[in-house]
């Protein structure tokens, strides 16, 4: 029994790492998934790996940009009509001391 049948999950930062793993797990459990990532090529590669025709989409954009987020949400709603699960996984990495980053 797949525990996420008929659910729709959105994963920001879904093109690699933890986000890709979450996307793959959602798909394995029966969910439809939408990946949102700046790396559209990476997101498309994840879609190819999980191979869910009609149950997975990728949308590109910056999670810190309101217009990009609104566009992505509209794509998901147009495709699936609703969202059940949101994983806000997008992030950036900065290295340096606290003084350098302030």
Task: Write a compact overview of the structure shown.
The protein has 102 residues and is an alpha/beta fold. It contains four helices and four strands.
Structural class: alpha/beta
Q: Tell how many strands the DSSP assignment holds.
A: 4
Unreliable residue stretches: none
Strand content is 15-25%
- How large, in whole angstroms, is the Cα Rg? 14 Å
Q: How much helical structure, as a percent, in the residues?
A: 40-55%
Tally of individual helices: 4
How would a textbook summarize the main sheet?
4 strands, parallel
Mean pLDDT comes to 89
Helix and strand sequence: EHEHEHEH
Strand order of the largest sheet: 3-2-1-4
Per the principal axes of the C-alpha atoms, what is the gross shape? globular
The CATH H-level homologous superfamily: NAD(P)-binding Rossmann-like Domain
CATH class: Alpha Beta
Topology:
Layout: E1 8-12, H1 17-28, E2 32-37, H2 40-50, E3 56-60, H3 66-80, E4 85-88, H4 98-101
Parallel strand pairs: 1-2, 1-4, 2-3
Helix pairs in contact: 1-2
List keywords for this structure.
102 residues, alpha/beta, Rossmann fold, 4-stranded parallel beta sheet, 4 helices, 4 strands
Please characterize this protein's 3D structure:
This protein is an alpha/beta fold and 102 residues long. It has one domain: NAD(P)-binding Rossmann-like Domain (Rossmann fold). Helix content is 41%, strand content 20%. It is built from four helices and four strands. It has helices at 17-28, 40-50, 66-80, 98-101; strands spanning 8-12, 32-37, 56-60, 85-88. It has a four-stranded parallel sheet, sandwiched between helices. Strand 1 (8-12), helix 1 and strand 2 form a beta-alpha-beta unit. The protein is globular. The relative contact order is 0.22. The mean pLDDT is 89.
